[in-house]
Design a protein that fits this description.
The complex is a heterodimer of chains A (184) and B (472). Chain A has 184 residues and is mainly alpha-helical. Chain A has nine helices and four strands. In chain A, the strands form two sheets. Chain A has a two-stranded antiparallel ribbon with strand order 1-4. Chain A has a two-stranded antiparallel ribbon with strand order 2-3. Classes of the chains: A mainly alpha (184), B alpha/beta (472).
């Protein structure tokens, strides 16, 4: 199989799955991943639409739903999904864009959704591990995100990172790694 | 062809060019000897170094702006009769009677170009412009027609002109993107993000989107304020650690250029974080300049700020900037189905002063010497009414204009028929339009190709000729 980069929806769902938050419920009303001003936002002629992605509560129940249940606002797309090459849904797209841009790197580093998932993943690791030392946390994080043991040098460098900057930062780094984003 | 990617599909696709060649390309790419292929462009001395394109989303009405037809005034209110057996149909409505423009017409400048009272500011600059008076579109549906203008093809999946130019020429300054898109503050145009797509070209050529009206114009430039654990120090250490992790991962997987591309994208991201504020800082412009563009006026502030940003961007080395007027919604764009007297001035007033100011400012700063300014739309509108006083889509004829680098000022090329219904003489297709822009940038449109799915693709497909009549 050719190596594949995870698609936008897969990145989103995988991050939720790793942090233990993914709501796998099937069907139901669309999940809104933005704030809006009721009918004014959705009616034609209600321009400019009020669609606010930045101030969404990243712990809201809708946030945890699978990406296929997203309400897609065609002219004002979700910035994270957009950066990861998710089409707007307006017309059929023969091939998904899955390559790298600077905007995508910025999204992976700074998007509130991914940062919150990294924090949740760190909380999950702490709650599941009776041993509170950084080395055990690094092993757990590698196991969950990359599904392998850290190499000796990785244990050391990530141990230092966790000690200085906290486990959430280390988890966020792993979510930014090529090893997580590409499927061999 | 991208020498560093050697998936099975690419390998098979390139068999025709010789097995030895593929193996060699793969070996060399691992050593990164071929990672930066020499750019064969520009092929000849370019007249333009950069381009600003103003795109009127929705289909700007040529017969209410630039294409004056006295016969429409004579025949106003009469049924449209283009002759025995000539089929008349509109995109989404039943053709109404012929309708003269509700605006006043006058000739302007030395060149005596007709411009309607809907564009008082641009009318003052007609002597700088070269008009394409008989452009045509094969589609009169927004999505495909906009794709035709942006990519040359009616279907999604093909690269935009800005992406082709980025691919051919790259950026002038390594700290800024080559292709920037400035969509309307109300939202994306009809084709959404695909209006700025790289199509099958490598993704680093896609339009870098700046949402000028948003509180955060370049999304994700900074972490959210609430993320207290992310500090300058944690970020610096983290990026170093990430680079190590990714380098080790890539070392075990040779020959996959995407892994290296992703590593490099983090480096460009870091450079962008430093350069972006300078691109966007319209508040740092003088009061005079801000007033000239209309930044101080509510009705045109959004377009004015984006025109001003466009100028700042080309000054800082961006190659191709696209500024959109109007979004893809049901109103507040150039898609004036319901009421030309009301809907058209609404959007024209938002565009007119800033666009004229941009032209004037570029000239005053000497930038017009090597910057091409392009004003265009996806199609025109019908000379007959839709409903009472609206107009339906018309792929038959529409108007675009060029100004600046390499352009013969004050000329017009082509004419529509007596009603402004269909292009009649010296017709300009989107292929000719694209070929001319590439030519001004020093690129032969037949030589700019990219191998994809067994075909050496071109922006101009197998068509197009440079419109020499509008060149200086």
């Amino acid at each position: 199989m050719n190596r594949q980069r995870l698609r936008a929806e897969q990145v989103r769902d995988a991050a939720l799955h790793l942090s233990g938050e993914l709501d796998g419920k099937m069907g139901g009303p669309p999940a809104l991943h933005f704030l809006h001003k009721d009918d004014k936002t959705f009616n034609p002629g209600g321009a400019p639409p009020f669609v606010d992605y930045a101030n969404l509560d990243q712990d809201s129940p809708d946030t945890r739903r699978r990406a296929i249940y997203r309400f897609i606002f065609r002219t004002v797309p979700d910035p994270l999904m957009d950066a990861l090459g998710c089409p707007d849904g307006g017309s059929a797209v023969p091939v998904r864009a899955t390559s790298s841009t600077a905007q995508q790197a910025l999204a992976m580093l700074n998007d509130a959704f991914l940062i919150r998932r990294a924090e949740r993943l760190a909380e999950r690791i702490v709650s599941e591990n009776t041993r509170a030392d950084a080395a055990a946390q690094v092993r757990a994080a590698f196991g969950i995100v990359l599904q392998r043991e850290p190499a000796g040098s990785e244990t050391r460098s990530f141990h230092d990172h966790v000690s200085q900057h906290g486990l959430a930062n280390a988890c966020h780094l792993l979510l930014n790694s090529n090893e997580f984003l590409f499927l061999d | 062809m991208h020498p560093s990617s050697t998936t099975r599909r690419d390998f098979l696709g390139h068999l025709g060019t010789g097995l030895g060649g593929v193996a060699l390309a793969s070996l060399l790419s691992e050593d990164r000897l071929l990672a930066q292929p020499a750019k064969p462009f520009p092929q000849f001395a370019p007249r333009a170094k950069r381009v600003i394109q103003l795109f009127m989303n929705g289909g700007a009405s040529q017969c209410d702006l630039f294409d004056y037809k006295p016969s429409l005034e004579k025949l106003h209110g009469k049924p449209f009769d283009p002759g025995e057996g000539v089929r008349v149909e509109a995109s989404v409505s039943t053709p109404g009677n012929l309708m003269k423009s509700p605006f006043q017409w006058a000739q302007h400048g030395q060149s005596g170009r007709w411009v309607s009272s809907a564009l008082p500011h641009l009318a003052r600059h007609v002597d700088e412009m070269a008009f394409l008076m008989a452009m045509t579109s094969e589609s009169n549906v927004h999505g495909p027609a906009a794709y035709l203008q942006t990519t040359g093809f009616p279907l999604p999946g093909f690269p935009c002109m800005g992406a082709w130019i980025s691919h051919a020429l790259g950026t002038i300054n390594q700290n800024v993107p080559a292709f920037v898109a400035l969509p309307d503050g109300r939202g994306y145009p009809y084709n959404g993000r695909s209006a700025f797509t790289n199509g099958f070209l490598p993704a680093n050529h896609q339009g870098f989107v700046v949402r000028a009206a948003a509180p955060e114009p370049v999304t994700h430039l900074e972490p959210p304020a609430g993320a207290a654990h992310i500090t300058g120090e944690s970020r610096r250490d983290g990026l170093a650690l990430l680079a190590e992790l990714n380098a080790r991962h890539a070392a075990g997987r040779p020959g996959d250029g995407r892994l290296q591309a992703r590593i490099e994208s983090y480096q460009l991201a870091a450079r962008l974080q430093l350069s972006a504020p300078g691109l966007l800082d319209v508040d740092g412009e003088s009061e005079t300049t801000r007033k000239l563009y209309g930044v101080d006026q509510d009705h045109c502030r959004d377009f004015a700020r984006r025109c001003l940003m466009a100028r700042r961007m080309i000054e800082r080395g961006v190659r191709f900037v696209q500024v959109w007027s109007g979004h893809g919604g049901g109103s507040e764009n150039w898609d004036n189905h319901g009421n030309i007297p009301k809907e058209l001035p609404f959007i024209a007033n938002q565009m007119d002063q800033p666009a004229a100011a941009l032209l004037q400012d570029l000239k005053a700063r000497g930038l017009l010497e090597d910057t091409l300014l392009v004003w265009t739309t996806e199609f025109g509108r019908m000379p007959f009414s839709q409903g009472d006083v609206g107009r339906d889509h018309n792929g038959g004829t529409f108007v675009s204009w060029f100004a600046g680098a390499g352009i013969r000022p004050g000329v017009a090329h082509g004419e529509s028929d007596e009603w402004s219904w269909k292009a009649a003489s010296n017709i300009t297709t989107r292929h000719d339009f694209h070929a001319t822009i590439l030519h001004l940038l020093g690129i032969d449109h037949e030589a700019l190709t990219f191998y994809h799915n067994g075909i050496r693709r071109r922006l101009t497909d197998v068509h197009g000729s440079v419109i020499r009549e509008i060149l200086a």
